[in-house]
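Internal ticket #5521
Category: modeling
Description: The requester needs a full-assembly model to guide mutagenesis choices. All entity lines are attached below as received. Residue total reported by intake: 638.
Assigned to: D.W.
Attached entities:
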Amino acid sequence: MEMNEDESHQQRARPRLDRFKRQWHKFSSNPLSLMGLAVVILLILAAILAKVVAPHPDHSGLFLDFSNANQAPSLRYLAGTDEYGRDILSRMLVGLRYSLGIGLLVLALSVPLGVLLGAIAGHYRHTWVDTAIMRSTDLFMAIPPLILALVVCAMFTPGYFFAALGIATAWWPWYTRLTYSLFTSLSNELYIKYAELGGATHWHIILKETLPNAVSPIFTKMSLDMGMIIIIASSMSFVGLGVQPPKPSLGSMVAEGMKYLPEYWWISVFPAMMVVLIVLGFNLLGDGLRDVFAIEEI
Amino acid sequence: MQNMALFILRRIGYGLLVLLSLSFVVLSFIRLIPGDPVRMSLGPTASEKVVREVRSELYLDRPIPVQYFYWLRGVLRHGDFGKSLFTHRAVSKDIAEFLPRSMELAACSALLILVFGVLLGTLSALFRDTWLDNLLRFFAYLGVVTPPYAIAIFFLLLFAFYWKFFPIGGMPAFPEELRVTGMLTFDALIEGRFPLFFDSLWHLILPAVSLSLGSIAYQARIHRSSMIDNINKDYISFARVVGVRKTTLTLKHLMKPSFIPTLTIFGLQVAALLGNAFLIEVIFRYPGFSRYSLQVIMTKDPYGIVAVTMVFGIVFALVNILLDVGVAWLDPRVRLQAPE
């Protein structure tokens, strides 16, 4: 995406806006990326407005209506009802809220920590700080993330926050590694050398010079990770280590529906398809971002 | 070659160091958090005296470093990983029973991933931008975004409930006299019990396919792009110009370098298999190690949890070492470097 010479001269007045326009042009030229963006925006809106758009908002909690239990999808219950006669669609919308929320919570817990440690280790390369930080990432990456998340979560009381904490425990090292490699490759840039020679403080170099140039790969990874995290979170709530009943979560809805296969297939199948839709949206969006920023290492 | 041996030794040494620290962290962590696993395991009716005895038998009443020392001594001396509060027997016995079953499942899945991932990726790359490529890429993307448990449920509905082609789960009983490796399918085969072999293979197919489908899709994507990268390289054009036969060109000049990223991803996928096997084993009621792990984790069984993390850590480390060695073998430019 290089511009030719005259174009860059004319547009130098507002470089940031122009760069954004150029990137948007590239992003929007791929229909799949646009689809991903649309899906993600729709899902976020649906999650925020869950209680408003849900046909039966009260079905998301403790609600019993045994006369309508296990109803097949119909006009009244678009995705059918579960064993307690609760509307699956309404519960999916509220479950979507928890799913997106847990994705954001995990990123909010792991990204700042991971990036900060990676930045420090990358800045103080080849010192004991580097060794200590990068070796401790090895410790947390020594077992599969889902297992580490389960172990951490199961130690505390099962629930929304501890599920997120568990996943975050397994997640931050990836951001440390990514930031570390970005800092390593950026450290030879001339503007960093100038800042060092000019007597800038370490914090200035880390936060003001290097980090801003490492932001786009980190954001792209966040978008690509959302899908993965939501899959892990729903797997955890599948085994009961997530949002606790009667609150709905997509994973536990799938698990509850397992008992009623194959007669009442809709109880499991629709929430599972919702997870697929979420992951699809975030992956398409992330792939689009990756193409725009031309990032190879993620 | 000497370089390689040194590299492997160093990596094993470093892996052991990581595992030792990890076991200490996990064991301390279990001790530090509130809750009494012994009381939980024995139930509210057990007398205080019995609870105290069990606690002392498991060194849970000692300071953490002392408890860790006893645990480590047991592991090093007799391969004894302590006693499980969940199954009420030695954890090493549990591992010996359940781990081979999961390895059997993982081996099946790994085979599927390698064969179909490479096959579909190659087809996609050779017929680039045709309808076949587009179709394969569509399914590959779908496979990547669908969680394994969702695939398992769709497959269960379709192939077990609707078409009744495969069993809905479980495994045939393991005749004790057969036990050699602990892998039912394998043991039945080498003992010549063919009906049992086919029966157990039949039960293995649906879980293995559900477990591997996402990875097959991802593997195919990686292999496709890696082959396309290489197709455009000069040395391929050169080989074509000087008249190297098309099959030789594809199989030797194109395939070998294309396997480098494929192999890296394959290792990561195999490691991911173990984690993903959790829900697959639960859904198909498969008597494997992942289901056992889940149960010990949920009951906060201290030695069970430590053993589970150790087993996964060992498998993870071995896969990674094998991976680095494999990549170094395929790519002569790679110089092996182990942490000091």
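Resolution: model delivered.
Comment from assignee: Chain A touches chain B at residues 135, 138-139, 142-148, 150-151, 154-156, 227, 231, 234-235, 238-241, 254, 258, 261-262, 265, 268-269, 272-273, 275-276, 279-280, 283 (CB under 8 Å).
Ticket closed.
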